[in-house]
Amino acid sequence: MAVKTEEMVLNMGPQHPSTHGVLRLELTLDGELIVKVVPHIGYLHRCFEKHAEAMNYSQVIPYTDRLDYLASMGNELGYVIGVEKLLGIEVPERVEYIRVIMGELQRIASHLVALGTYGADLGAFTPFLFCFRDREKILNLFEITCGARLLYNYIWVGGLSHDLHPDFIRLTREFIKEFRPNLKELNDLLSYNRIFIDRTANVGILPAETAVNFGVTGPNLRASGLKWDIRKDDTYSVYSKFDFEIPVGEGKVGTVGDCWDRYIVRVYEMEESLKIIEQALDSLPEGDVASAIPKRIKPPVGNVYARVENPRGELGYFIISDGSINPFRVKVRAPSFVTLQIMNELCKGHLVADVIAILGSIDIVLGEIDK
């Protein structure tokens, strides 16, 4: 007969460094074993969706930057695509190519934060420094383009705020040349480190069916073995013109859909992003990036849903227009918000220390959770 011990409730956060933001996890424990995990959110008081109703369509763009603040370029792109659909605007090809380049650079920069902080969560500090070293180079490219390093207001309805800097293409090619060997260095230091594998393999297994039922998207879904990527399966911008692969979890060191698979899929995705950027640079067309920007944005009455493949999964905007210069409603489908709900499923039966490994592996940003 099993002896039932008294359960204990333990709060992890909202100040805990490994909650990656102001998140409180209410853990119900039976000794060291997790019985239940309840996430408590809302500490940021963002109110983006309500703010959007008081802004005109262009003024909303800087607010999108502050949702997933590690993927601002993608946030802007999803919103702008939605407004352009409402207006029936076709943007110049050069604009589309630059948007893809910026989006993939942003994907790499975001994944570098995810991977570096994940290593730090589990006790490996050196990879954290190396990842941030490479991320700084991408932020330098953004800075010479639009003057900002985190919140850009770069992708506008119908175009871009600035064309590329004269040195941008050269500096981007230099970054790609430097970064490829650094990816191998990251794998040698962290990915195939025995201690790291022991902490992440066979931990927090997410079956593909469960991932789909919970609405999980992005790298977390693909790590469970399902090859679904909006860039290919519901393509937008000019992604259909580029040749790239969609990495999926294979259970190389553990079980398909475990923490290690969620980690390594992001490593592989950075390699594919480099391929996309190179192809876009090689075939970058000429043109005016501001020629299609409307002087006044006043869409007809209607609604639209636009989605993009952000670093954390499917970012969607449902925009309702009442015919005025302000959106009547902007509803955000934030991937981090959707993904957080699987924490209880992933953690049950694991140890307290595994909560850190599981939470870091799903790569959330509280800015879009508290949207």
Strand adjacency order, main sheet: 1-2-3
- Count of all domains: 1
What's the CATH topology label?
Cytochrome-c3 Hydrogenase, chain B
Number of strands: 8
If classified by CATH, what would the architecture be?
Answer: Orthogonal Bundle
CA radius of gyration is: 21 Å
For the sheet with most strands, the description reads: 3 strands, antiparallel
Oligomer type? single chain
- Beta-strand content estimate: 5-15%
Q: Based on helices, strands and strand pairing, what is the structural class?
A: alpha+beta
Question: What is the overall pLDDT average?
Answer: 96
Helical residue percent band: 40-55%
Q: What's the order of the H and E elements?
A: EEEHHHHHEEHHHHHHEEEHHHH
CATH C-level name = Mainly Alpha
Name the shape in a single word.
Answer: globular
- Report low-confidence residues grouped into runs of 5 or more: none
Q: List the total number of helices.
A: 15
Span between termini = 48 Å
Kindly describe this structure.
The protein has 371 residues and is of the alpha+beta class. The chain has 15 helices and 8 strands. The strands form 3 sheets. A 3-stranded antiparallel β-sheet has the order 1-2-3. Strands 6-7-8 form a 3-stranded antiparallel β-sheet. It has a two-stranded antiparallel sheet with strand order 4-5. The longest helix has 29 residues, at 93-121.
Question: What are the SSEs and their pairings?
Answer:
Layout: E1 8-12, E2 24-30, E3 33-40, H1 48-52, H2 57-65, H3 72-87, H4 93-121, H5 126-146, E4 155-156, E5 159-160, H6 168-191, H7 194-200, H8 208-213, H9 219-222, H10 230-233, H11 259-282, E6 302-310, E7 313-321, E8 329-333, H12 335-340, H13 343-347, H14 352-362, H15 366-369
Antiparallel strand pairs: 1-2, 2-3, 4-5, 6-7, 7-8
